[in-house]
Write a structure and sequence with these properties.
GO terms for molecular function: structural constituent of ribosome. This is Large ribosomal subunit protein uL29. Keywords: Coiled coil, Ribonucleoprotein, Ribosomal protein. By secondary structure, this protein is an all-alpha fold. The protein has one domain: Helix Hairpins (Orthogonal Bundle). It contains three helices and no strands.
Length: about 70
């Protein structure tokens, strides 16, 4: 996911995407633990996407207060 995509989303869409990414991160951790993970770079991508979404949602919340 690119930052420009996340900026166009609403707060509800961001929270839905965050929940989806956290679920994927959970599954990736299990795959890694059991040795079934094939694309190891996906762990890093998901972690960064989660951080990106959290940052943008906090920015939007701060803009709503101001």
């Amino acid at each position: 996911m690119k930052a420009t995509d996340a900026h166009t989303m609403t707060v509800d869409q961001l929270s839905d995407e965050l929940a989806k990414l956290k679920k994927e991160q959970f599954n990736l951790r299990f795959q890694k633990a059991t040795g079934q993970l094939e694309k190891t770079s996906r762990v890093k991508e998901v972690r960064r996407d989660i951080a990106r979404i959290k940052t943008i949602s906090r920015q939007k919340a701060a803009d709503a207060k101001a």
